[in-house]
Write a structure and sequence with these properties.
Helices cover about 60% and strands about 5% of the residues. The protein is built from 16 helices and 4 strands. A two-stranded antiparallel ribbon has the order 1-2. Strands 3-4 form a two-stranded antiparallel sheet. A hairpin with a 2-residue loop joins strand 1 and strand 2.
């Protein structure tokens, strides 16, 4: 399992890298695409391995509930986020990934669909009739006019019946964030310090059980974790030598390069700088945190940024200590415009440092929740420092698209960046 400390050490080496070892003028587009696909396979393979470690920790928690086994399961969840977040750069440009991603990383979620919530959460809304369904407490319920037998909580129930139930995206029943909620519970601290504080006794047996339905809560947690493992196993196979995602990428060299740059630019700009960072700061709302139950958002942002850099440089530090490295987009840009390549590599390193400053501050006690609070000038400066760096590097990614003579590249946007007034309407 890759620790956060190990990953951060690996980053220090990565930041110092120049372009990949191959001579820029001799690098073929196909070789660049192969490196990218190899990094995808390694990243998803690491995500699978850490999810399997999480599954083992969850099984230990259910078998022997205790403060120690709950803490171990939480640590395994955090570790699982390290490689997975580095794979988010493969979204947006690769249809296979984008169509699949919602199963494992959808957020935000109406957690009342899954389990008990605080009274302040409220109940059903006009937007989501099932926002407080509480599947764990109800072995039978009506969904979209049909009676559902949920006497046994299985991966199939979560995937085919509950995920995006009634067509509502906030009905997230599967993936990392459903598991996160079941391990931490709600974070009721607002913009104050502290994460969710679910007691280990929520998984205890007999009279020691708190908040009822401990056996069903354990069923749900194990089903969600098993489903995460199977989903990651599937996506890893798509990047194998004979995988569908690799084949689609390699089918057209220019289209493959467009997919790479679309993923880099869209994650950098609309998704990370906009929806995940700037929006929460504008609204001063900790509910806009991606890892809102565990207060792990600072790590998820950091590794997203690292993933973008990995892809541009064609270099990834695998969880087992191996390095996946080869011809890269950086090589192609360097051949076309050496100054632009140096500029973009510098901006990517600057962004990772800015995200690292957010991470360092959070680990020193300034929770990401607190950074979002109105009037927290230090927090705002940290978050906006990273947002500004992400936006700035996106401008250079756009120039790289032009330098490579590519067209039809459109990056994801965000009202928080493109039309701020719309956020408050």
């Amino acid at each position: 399992m890759q620790s956060l400390t190990h990953a951060t050490s690996a980053l220090a080496l990565t930041i110092g890298l120049g372009a990949a070892a191959a001579t820029a003028g001799s690098v073929s587009k196909t070789a660049v695409l192969e490196t990218y696909a190899d990094i995808a396979r390694a990243g998803y393979g690491d995500s699978l391995a850490t999810a399997q470690a999480l599954q083992a920790a969850v099984d230990a928690l259910i078998a022997t509930p205790s403060p120690e086994t709950l803490a171990a399961a939480r640590a395994a969840w955090r570790a699982a986020r390290v490689p997975y977040q580095q794979t988010e750069v493969f979204r947006f440009g690769n249809a296979i990934v984008d169509d699949w991603e919602g199963k494992v990383n959808a957020w935000p979620l109406d957690e009342g669909l899954i389990d008990y919530v605080d009274a302040s959460y409220g109940g059903a809304t006009d937007e989501n009739e099932y926002a407080a369904l509480n599947v764990i407490a109800n072995p039978s319920f009506t969904l979209s006019g049909e009676t559902v037998d949920a006497s046994e909580i299985t991966p199939a129930l979560l995937e085919t019946t509950l995920q995006e139930a009634d067509g509502v995206e906030a009905n997230v029943a599967t993936g990392y964030h459903a598991i996160e909620f079941l391990l931490w519970g709600q974070d009721l601290n607002g913009t104050g310090p502290g994460a969710g504080n679910r007691p280990w006794t929520d998984y205890a047996q007999g009279d020691a059980c708190t908040n009822g339905n401990c056996d069903r809560r354990g069923q749900y947690l194990q089903a969600a974790t098993a489903l995460l493992v199977s989903d990651l196993d599937w996506i890893t196979a798509q990047w194998a030598d004979d995988g569908a995602a690799r084949a689609a990428l390699l089918a057209d060299e220019d289209a493959g390069l467009i997919a790479i740059l679309t993923g880099m630019g869209s994650l950098s700009y609309g998704e990370l700088a906009g929806e995940r960072m700037r929006l929460g700061l504008m609204l001063n709302d900790p509910e806009e945190e991606q890892d809102c139950f565990s207060d792990n958002t600072y790590n998820s942002h950091f590794y997203d940024g690292l993933g973008i850099q990995n892809v541009y440089l064609g270099d990834y530090a695998s969880a087992d200590g191996a390095r996946i490295s080869g011809p890269s987009i950086s090589d192609l840009v360097a051949a076309a415009n050496p100054a632009l390549d140096a500029e973009l590599r510098g901006k990517l390193a600057h962004t990772v440092r800015a995200l690292g400053q957010v991470k360092t501050a959070a680990e020193a006690g300034l929770a990401y929740d607190q950074m979002l609070a109105r009037g927290n000038e230090t927090g705002e400066a940290l978050v906006m420092g990273a947002v500004d760096a992400l936006v700035d590097q996106t401008r250079s990614i756009e120039r790289a698209v032009s330098a490579l003579g590519l067209d039809q590249v459109a990056f994801e946007g965000s009202d928080s960046l493109d039309n701020p007034d719309a956020v408050f309407q």
